[in-house]
Amino acid sequence: MTGVPQALRGTPAMPTQPRRNGSDRSIGAILIDAGRLDAGAVERILRVQKEEGLRFGEAGVSLSLLKQDDIDFALARQFDYPYLMPGNESVSGDVVAAFKPFNHAVEQLRVLRSQLMLRWFTGEPGHKALAIVGVGRSEGRSFIAANLAVVFSQLGERTLLIDADLRNSCQARLFKLESRAGLSNMLAGRAGREAIVRIAAMLHLSVLPAGVAPPNPQELLGRPAFARLLQELAEDFDVILIDTPAARDCADAQTLATRAGAALVLARKDLTSAPDLVQLARSVQQSGAELVGSVLNDA
Q1: Which of 76, 158, 203, 221 has its CA 20 to 30 A from that of 85?
Q2: Residue 35: inside a domain
């Protein structure tokens, strides 16, 4: 699954910058710990930095000892903005925000994040959960949900990603989770909070996988237990993103939007039909959920 979201319709918002954690570790120390520089190389860089009045990164690049990727890596560590190195197999490469936080596609996700914080995640009561909904399959709902969860967590928000697609779940594969317990097990009373998995590689991010595929997904999601669960989780998390099944296949998406209180509608260029999209938007609003906006996946 790949895709690049266009911004929400409406007035664009400037992307929010990551919060600094106050760390005073130098770039050189970070790169030594990461195995990207040795002490001798750091001394050479520091010498040129002092002689020519350059920044550490500029001096390193001028000596061909550093690349921009090294500097980005160190700055991310300084500002408590974690991301994974290429080759890290703890998370799928489809979660591009975890590996390439500085590329154009992820910057668009940060713009989307900023607009969602202005329009929905405002800190008001009842504004903690958001369902990501779409008409059909292959539109990129799971991709958007996973990567949005990462960029929210990189901002320092306590973020929970719930895979509520109990028919064709995807998030366990994207985050390489081995546990079979998940949302379905919790709603059936067969699992508790231990089903929520903390993603060790990413600060502030947790995932609740779908769990065992049940024979009655719509009935499970429609139970009061799911509404109570969201209320309880809202006490522990700042942002709760809900991945949903295709609305064309079942009524689960509308149910989930109602439980969340709001929905973000996703469409894919040259795939989603305009009439189907309009019908979905209407059904979400008729269900009592707030339609926060729409995103066009144009890849």
Answers
A1: 158
A2: yes
Range of the domain at 151: 96-297
Position 30: which residue type?
Answer: I
pTM: 0.79
Structure tokens at 20: 């600094």
Q: What is the mean pLDDT of residues 77-82?
A: 70
Total H helices, total E strands in the chain:
13, 7
- Asked if residue 214 lies in contact with residue 223, where contact means CB atoms within 8 angstroms, the answer is no
How large is the angle between the packed helices 274-286 and 252-260, nearest 10 degrees? Answer: 50
Total structural domains in the chain? 2
Overall average pLDDT of the 66-91 stretch: 78
Same domain, 193 and 278: yes
pLDDT band at 66, cuts 50/70/90?
A: very high
Backbone phi and psi for residue 176, each to the nearest 5 degrees, phi listed first: 50, 55
Token pair for residue 52?
């020519």
Is residue 70 included in any domain, yes or no? Answer: yes
For 230-251, the pLDDT digits (tens) are 999 999 999 999 999 999 999 9
**Do 235 and 106 reside in the same domain of the chain?**
yes
DSSP 8-state symbol, 179: -
